[in-house]
């Protein structure tokens, strides 16, 4: 289907029933990044290049296909949404008045907001993942000391660097039990996936492939990890067991398939693809 | 600059939207009244490139992370990206560019560009004009030189596709237009949205005046009266002489067709992708096809990435590797590869010189926050079509990508080569007093 299809974004629960081929969930074609499920799987929140000078977080309701800005009055660029498993906490990266990207942390229950601001005036905090117990958030910190995985509490305080390696470290993702963190790193050359304990200890390498293995997403069942890989020449979504075994391509398309995010029930995932021209969200079943 | 009217065009979804055409009081095609150094016929005889399409990557794309990888450099230099083979034997790009690697036989790569300043506004002006400013300001942009030399029937001669004058948060590049020749040689600015909707930035004095209503003389006169009250006398004196030309442009079927992306096949529009840069490249191809001599497609209006006003330029001081992997690399790879394919399939590549560059590269040594800063002593440019021999790699940088090991390619050499291929030879440049003494990059030809 071409991006010139005039149909607005509409989907229903039927769109998420088992199917062999990925199903297209949006049709506007605007550049999209980093989708995640929210509200127990009823919504998808993602970053969209809404206008030439604004990247905004948007919420897509799976119930009726409606779409709206998540933060309607915010005029700063917003990226990398994250929600805690219980829906209480929300976190995202936001542009500041300098080239910085700060981390915004919200307690949606108490309606409190905190901000973590990196040290260097050009530093960035990106790709947050909230611990299942809601006590802290891990993220990629590009600041004095290089690009490392770091953590702060939900007030944006008590900064801890969990990695101290050469190369870049990015895309941290908590395991569902909160005991481990999967992340991408170039410490051994090209970008591969690693896992470490939640305190940064016991780093183990999970992938060994040509090209980039990036953006891990831990399945809520705790047994599988989805990620994006270019090992076959272009971006594809792969799924492997949590120990790195059984890596398989689940998208197999010449276009770019990227940014996987699991549904809370673990039956499939949403990803971004430009297979139909524009940049849109797609759903694919991933049987256990 | 004055807007002289508007028209409606269909977007890709079949709906009609208003698109504005604004005629500059001193737009490039007004140069028809200015002295010509050579005749049109003479230019046609010497030109290998009928048009030039410059893809401008403002902000400074990282040469090490794209077209000049250094996988054997120390870890504090090389970056995280693997390299991939290209169709050119022995030449490798980073993994961010698989489509262009598969098309490396369609373009040539310079790995030894140099600039003379590390400031965006200064380096950008030098890169687009060929030399630093003197007492009279910057020389004219290469596009202004060609526009003075060559016109397009019913269309502007120098078009810049951007949301406004390109620059950074401090202001525009002084070298973006006519420079020391004056605003009369500034480019005709056109913006193109991610849906392909064409708009003219800034003034919209005649909003609501559609081509169908242009025949309404009373309405036009009423709008002119409004205009006369709103502009100063000096500018008003220029208005009458230009009104006819503007009217011609606005009502020209050729112009309207050239700016209307809804006339493209859906597959073509899909291939470019629905981003402002993608659709702008498609619009650039249409303008070249329609005969516009010089089109500059801008990746963004601003060089900055994350400022609140910015629109994702290449100035990746922070998160360079994440941004290139997520955004800049895949988008550029897709769109530029599509542009080359499209021009080639339409038989336009032979007569269109495509040049792609920024104002500089980025620091080979990764900075303290895990990213890269400005680096003007060594960077890359891409050249295709219009008389350029494809599949060549010109120049070589040192093992860390810090300096050229071979003859540095200066902005003056870039401009000289572009104009030479477009049919403005040494004598003509000398008479125009631009790029005097400039040398052609012979290795490209």
Explain what you see.
The complex is a heterodimer of chains A (288) and B (445). Chain A is 0% helix and 48% strand. Residues 1-11 of chain A have low confidence and may be disordered. Chain A is mainly beta and 288 residues long. A 4-stranded antiparallel β-sheet of chain A has the order 1-24-23-22, with no helix packed on it. Chain A has a 4-stranded antiparallel β-sheet with strand order 2-3-4-5, with no helix packed on it. Chain A has a 4-stranded antiparallel β-sheet with strand order 6-7-8-9, with no helix packed on it. Chain A has strands spanning 23-24, 32-38, 43-51, 54-61, 67-69, 78-83, 89-95, 101-107, 112-116, 124-130, 136-143, 146-153, 160-161, 169-174, 180-185, 192-197, 204-205, 213-218, 224-229, 236-241, 248-249, 257-262, 268-273, 280-285. In chain A, a hairpin with a 2-residue loop joins strand 11 (136-143) and strand 12 (146-153). By secondary structure, chain B is of the alpha/beta class. Chain B contains 13 helices and 17 strands. Chain B has helices spanning 40-46, 75-78, 98-101, 120-129, 142-149, 217-230, 233-251, 253-259, 266-272, 276-289, 320-345, 411-421, 426-432, and strands at 2-10, 16-23, 51-56, 83-85, 92-94, 108-113, 158-161, 167-168, 171-172, 188-192, 198-199, 294-298, 352-357, 361-362, 374-375, 379-384, 393-394. In chain B, a hairpin with a 2-residue loop joins strand 8 and strand 9 (171-172). In chain B, helix 4 runs parallel beside helix 12 and helix 10 (276-289) runs parallel beside helix 11 (320-345). Residues 1-41, 202-215 and 238-244 of chain B have low confidence and may be disordered. Chains A and B meet through strand 11 and strand 12 of A and helix 9 and helix 11 of B.
